[in-house]
């Protein structure tokens, strides 16, 4: 009942609910415009875009699917990856003279290993380029090239009491509504609990303004919040309550104590988040996650006739369901063609590989070892095509939906100096190989790129892998995620499936290259939608 009411209010959010508050909203907008336009306040808004663990160990063992991040040859122990968005949300361009105190971010209980500035223009990126000071027994945190940063104050890491937990940014210029992101690599400082995400605080002063944290994207000004508040006040309290209730993580626990979730390496990072959330709700339950490929997941499900087991399988449209098993469609995984940035030959705006991409026919030629005639000059050299091993659902999706069934009958394992087509056994191996191998090209889930600086996404038929393009049917590289169980599954297996398909977990997985069934209802591709939706 609660979920039905929440879905009802979701439907109203596109227009009907706002129509009843039009007069009030227009009045409030005039007030907000006057306050925003003529008060002349300077303001920096910042928000957390991502804050998640890496290299987390449970009982001294890394969980399946967790990334292993190394910095300058050293594995980051009990680390975190944080992305912050910083935006000029005031009404004036910020200049260096407007800063009464520098903008700084502190990550309590963590040590800053390194950070990068993203989505900034070149002058701003140069100004904020980090010079990280680390303990004397570690290697230098940044390679300062000869002549770089001359005459420019650069961002640093402050080290109070010997702990570098704070990023201090120099005064900078930022136009109205412009923004940039900080991608920060952290590790546990040994004093706090690494199981908890770091507490993030900001410091700094603006003359005639302020620095403010926002709950979401920092676009919203406080004047706009007046409009949102007035309109929200006109909504029925029961709708708000129902929506909030439907987003709560609420698991049904079982007397069974162990569940094995096995299969797709593409879905395993998402399944790991669900596993941790479920175990937090049901602390006596142990969910074992095994990322070993779709086909091996099915083999394990069929062989474990007594144990509680779920197989994760990347499935392409038209593929026959597995006989003797129950199939549970949970959503769609979005994949991307990825390449080492050295592969492209930039010919100007709108003409590079990263803008125009490759056609499905060209990709078919590349991944069968033949390459293709590079008449337009977008590829600098013949690429090294990296494929997944047989049994990989990602590979099946690529060959079925992108290359039209074209694929190599066999491919040697990738190694230094490989040419033509070579293979790897997991997503992380593929991304690592493409990241360090000149002219390499491969494929992986679309959200797996943040810490591979030399890897870029290649559009297919000039279309990038966005949610909108997938739902409109313009982007072809996706696969349905099917969770298989034995027929008539119940108890812990069914409880975990219900938890994974809940609205709260769908929100938890939002923006991770996964589109749950609820988001597929309006898809223009009928075969993409889940049964019953």
UniProtKB/TrEMBL annotation:
InterPro entries: PBP_domain, Phosphate_ABC_transporter. Keywords: Membrane, Signal, Transmembrane, Transmembrane helix. Residues 194-213 are annotated as: Disordered. Gene3D superfamilies: Periplasmic binding protein-like II. The keyword Transmembrane helix applies. SUPFAM superfamilies: Periplasmic binding protein-like II. Residues 254-502 form the PBP domain. This is Substrate-binding domain-containing protein. It comes from Streptomyces bluensis.
């Amino acid at each position: 009942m609660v979920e039905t009411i929440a879905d009802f209010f979701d439907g109203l959010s596109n227009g009907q609910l706002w129509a009843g508050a039009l007069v009030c909203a227009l009045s409030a907008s005039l007030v907000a415009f006057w306050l925003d336009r003529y008060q002349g306040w300077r303001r920096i808004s910042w928000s957390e875009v991502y804050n998640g663990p890496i290299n987390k160990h449970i009982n001294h063992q890394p969980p399946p699917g967790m990334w292993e991040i190394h910095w300058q040859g050293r594995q980051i122990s009990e680390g975190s990856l944080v992305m912050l968005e910083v935006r000029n949300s005031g009404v004036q361009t910020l200049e260096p003279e407007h800063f009464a105190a520098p903008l700084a971010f502190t990550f309590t209980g963590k040590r800053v290993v390194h950070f990068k500035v993203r989505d900034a223009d070149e002058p701003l990126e140069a100004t904020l380029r980090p010079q990280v000071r680390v303990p004397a027994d570690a290697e230098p945190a940044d390679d300062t090239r000869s002549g770089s940063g001359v005459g420019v104050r650069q961002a640093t890491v402050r080290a109070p009491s010997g702990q570098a937990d704070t990023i201090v940014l120099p005064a900078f210029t930022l136009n109205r509504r412009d923004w940039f992101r900080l991608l920060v690599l952290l590790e546990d400082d040994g004093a706090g609990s690494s199981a908890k995400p770091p507490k993030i605080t900001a410091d700094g002063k603006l003359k005639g303004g302020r620095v403010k944290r926002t709950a979401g994207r920092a676009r919203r000004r406080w004047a706009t919040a007046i409009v949102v508040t007035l309109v929200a006040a006109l909504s029925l309290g029961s709708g708000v309550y129902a929506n909030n209730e439907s987003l709560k993580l609420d698991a049904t626990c079982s007397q069974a104590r162990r569940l094995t979730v096995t299969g797709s390496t593409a879905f395993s990072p998402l399944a790991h988040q669900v596993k941790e959330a479920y175990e937090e709700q049901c602390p006596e339950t142990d969910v074992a996650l095994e990322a070993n490929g779709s086909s091996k997941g099915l083999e394990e499900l069929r062989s474990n006739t007594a144990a509680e087991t779920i197989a994760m399988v990347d499935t392409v449209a038209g593929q026959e369901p597995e006989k003797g098993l129950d199939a549970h469609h949970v959503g769609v995984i979005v994949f991307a063609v990825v390449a080492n940035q050295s592969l492209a030959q930039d010919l100007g705006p709108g003409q590079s590989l990263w803008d125009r991409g490759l056609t499905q026919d060209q990709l078919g030629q590349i991944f069968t070892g033949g390459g293709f005639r590079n008449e337009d000059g977008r590829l600098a050299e013949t690429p090294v095509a990296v494929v997944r091993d047989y049994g990989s659902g990602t590979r099946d999706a690529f060959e079925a939906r992108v290359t039209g069934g074209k694929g190599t009958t066999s491919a040697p394992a990738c190694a230094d100096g490989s040419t033509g087509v070579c293979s790897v056994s997991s997503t992380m191996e593929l991304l690592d190989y493409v990241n360090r191998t000149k002219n390499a090209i491969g494929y992986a889930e679309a959200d797996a790129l943040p810490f591979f600086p030399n890897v870029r996404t290649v559009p297919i038929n000039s279309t990038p892998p966005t949610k909108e393009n997938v739902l409109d049917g313009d982007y072809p590289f996706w696969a349905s995620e099917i969770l298989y169980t034995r027929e008539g599954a119940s108890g812990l297996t069914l409880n975990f499936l219900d938890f994974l398909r809940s609205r709260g977990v769908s929100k938890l997985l939002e923006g991770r290259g996964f589109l749950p069934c609820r988001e597929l209802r309006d898809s223009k591709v009928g075969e993409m939608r889940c049964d019953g939706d």
